Amino acid sequence: MSAMLEVRGLTKHFPVHRGVLRRVVGQVRAVEDVSFDVAQGETLAIVGESGCGKSTIGRTLLRLIEATAGSVRLEGEHVLNQPEAKMREIRKQMQIIFQDPFGSLNPRMTVSETLAEPLLLHGLATAKDVREKVSNLLETCGLQPWHAERYPHEFSGGQRQRVGIARALATRPKLIVCDEPVSALDVSVQAQIVNLLKDLQQQFGIGYVFISHDLAVVRHMADRVAVVYLGRIVEEAPTADLFARPSHPYTRSLIDAAPRPDPGEKTARAPLEGDLPSALAPPSGCAFHPRCPMAQDLCRTERPALRKLGQARVACHFAETVTATGLTTAAAPS
Ligand code: SF4
Ligand code: MG
């Protein structure tokens, strides 16, 4: 069975310029050789610290940023390197929801205008029935039809995100990239938006690439999780497995660093130390080695390949030990 979305070897380097001549002095390796699949109606979460390349992955999928290398296929159709005419058709199938719904909505357009635009552009509504289709979209996203004549500043954050979702939904996409869709919202509102996204997924069979740094949200939302470190996937596994038995020390650290619902829980913690290194000059070998409590000599010289381990994929020389012990203190640093 082939996946709805197939991403292979996705890579994005940003050149770094210096001086008046704007000479290229280096490359920020924002995304390196990223491959994953998303099935119809499935949510793949992409998690990692801020600056790890999560958003760049999301944006290159839709070509809001052009990839340096790799391929993206939606239902077998290549997305990268398509001429603009073809891209219009593909964009209908792939949408994005941003973290800040305020920043992504035009303040001078009413909600009705904002939603009518994609409907008319893609021939999904006519001048005659566009009002009705806008009303339907609003209702599907939990807003009242009378909201249509309001401007973004007249809404709460949660309502604005509902408008953002309605706009993404307008073209009946097969896939939506959700880039930190609830991070800017109050915790009480987050659950409502997450539940709306889940309802819409069930109703329309949409696949999500769900970008987030919030593990609690991801645990609730995702079927599978890909953990990204310095632009590379270091672990990918079904959600329950990843939280129960992380196989990569970085995944373990992220889980340890996340706030726990039960403060009485007696699990040894190994919180993450040090900052994310620069993607301009990533560390040798395993890029996580300067922060890894399990790092050995091998880790400093040899980059671990992303390999299959049970249901997971993991890039760590000692993944078996991490999985078996569950703790990062098992091996003494050399
Ligand atoms: Fe740590 Fe080595 Fe595994 Fe990298 S390969 S995560 S440094 S143990
Ligand atoms: Mg981001």
Automatic annotation (TrEMBL):
InterPro entries: AAA+_ATPase, ABC_transp_ATP-bind, ABC_transporter-like_ATP-bd, ABC_transporter-like_CS, Oligopep_ABC_C, P-loop_NTPase. SUPFAM superfamilies: P-loop containing nucleoside triphosphate hydrolases. It comes from Pseudooceanicola lipolyticus. The keyword Nucleotide-binding applies. GO terms for molecular function: ATP binding; ATP hydrolysis activity. Residues 253-275 are annotated as: Disordered. This is Peptide ABC transporter substrate-binding protein. Keywords: ATP-binding, Nucleotide-binding, Transport.
